[in-house]
Amino acid sequence: MPQTTTVGAATVDRLLHRDPVCSVFSGTVPADPAGLLCVTVAHERVDGSRREVFLEWAAKLTGLPAHPHLSPCSAVGLTENGRPYLAVGTTRRTLSDLLTETGPMPAGQVRALGVALSDAVAVYHRGGLIHGAIQPAHILVGSGHHLQLTAYDVTAPVLAAPLPPSPYTAPEHLDAAVAGEVAASPAGDVYALATVLYAALGGRLPWSRSSREGVADPLLRAAPIPHIPGVDTELTDHIGAALHPDPRRRPTSAVLRDQLTRLDLTAARAPGHRPASVPSALLPSRGLRPVAVSMSTELAPYRPGPERTGLRPRLRKIATATAGIALTGALLGGAALATYAATNPESSGSVCNDPAELGGRISEQLEDGTIVDSWCAGDEFVAATVDYEGGSGGGGEAATERLAWRIEGENLVAVTDCADVGLPESILKFLSCG
Description:
Elements: E1 5-7, E2 10-18, E3 22-29, E4 32-42, H1 48-62, E5 73-78, E6 84-89, H2 95-102, H3 107-126, E7 139-141, E8 147-149, H4 174-178, H5 186-200, H6 212-215, H7 218-221, H8 233-242, H9 253-262, E9 291-292, H10 334-342, H11 350-353, H12 355-364, E10 370-377, E11 381-388, E12 399-408, E13 411-414, H13 425-430
Antiparallel strand pairs: 1-2, 2-3, 2-9, 3-4, 4-6, 5-6, 7-8, 10-11, 11-12, 12-13
Helix pairs in contact: 3-5, 3-9, 5-8
């Protein structure tokens, strides 16, 4: 039975993710012991003005009126030793999973999705809050395909972590994202929501490329938004207006809600057959997996050590990404990525079904070091973050290394080169392959 402990009002039992800003756990609260929570805990203790800023943000969050399409905040505050924490309801599936499994939604469903989420975002904005990370992976899918926006920690004081640029990053925030800074605005939320709707229709945006250069190219963001074959042109016109490169010319979330509500879906449709799938660049894959929580380390402060100067030979060909993009090793960073991890079931592969077995198999591949976290990319690849005490020379600070293996029957075969055929994008990004 896994060990448990408490974080404020929440009981946590599994570590889902740890980054330089916070740790994220699965957990419950006494008021709803059957409900699944994602519990974010800052590594840093706060006092003085920073404490007041966080508590003011927490008061705004808890003061929001209940909304059917906003994931409920179950607990927020400070731990006994002064670390900010946030506990939010979650599910095991997201809109990203749904679109991957079923493909694009019909125009009527996308309009309904837009009305529901834009109304939820309008409530969030009226409460004086900015989301900053609206993406399919942060929209939960509950019973009956009920959708809820989550991942409030992305722009929360103290809990916030910079996100690398993505197709959902508004053009006015691209420079900050490339620089590894946190940037968000109400107009940026509208832009991201419009990108979600366009993705749900199966559209291909000019900047939704797999390369990081395309994602962050401001010139591409100025390109016209193309109509989607077989989809009502008036619907994509409204979405395109919300994707305008000038934030001053985008509708507010409330105006977008009203526009979609009044929309008549009998307008002309763009010629051609409707897309059969959603572009992978708009549904980036993730693979972070939960690991068992150790009582001795679950709430230990994160102390990042220097990068290893002598990487093991099998990873010498792996390029080093910029600090902002490599912060989390995935398209989504920090606590936001952890929210996605909390909502996904484990892989069907046998080694991925049991965290203890997965950790043991990875330990067999290591000469030394401590596994910080491990996860599976589908049922063909395994990855892990490993801490080495003493650094490469044995007398320095702890160093961290990212490793990956291909699952071949009962064996794990080390990934030695970014050019290996068949490496999924999640592994390439985790290893910071250029």
